Amino acid sequence: MEATKKVKTVGEGVGFERIRRITGYLVGTLDRFNNAKKAEEHDRVKHTGVK
Q: What are the two backbone dihedrals, phi and then psi, of residue 21, each rounded to the nearest 5 degrees?
């Protein structure tokens, strides 16, 4: 019988917060921005990783 070996991915189970740069400010959430700043972030082009 072969022993089952669990492979753990680096960073697995580690929480992180997304940081954005909006008009010169580094922010984690958009809670404190007014509607214009939220719209600016929403209208940005979203880039995806290379597959």
A: -110, 115
Count Cα neighbours of 41 within 13 Å in the Cβ-side half-sphere: 18
What is the H or E stretch that residue 21 is in?
Answer: strand 20-22
Tell me how far apart the 2 most distant CA atoms of the chain are, in Å.
62
Q: Write out pLDDT tens, residues 20-44.
A: 776 677 777 778 888 988 888 888 8
Q: How far apart are alpha carbons 20 and 26 in whole angstroms?
A: 6
> Distance (Å, rounded) from C-alpha 29 to C-alpha 14?
19
**Backbone angles phi and psi of 43, in degrees to 5:** -80, -5
CB 30 within 8 A of CB 37: yes
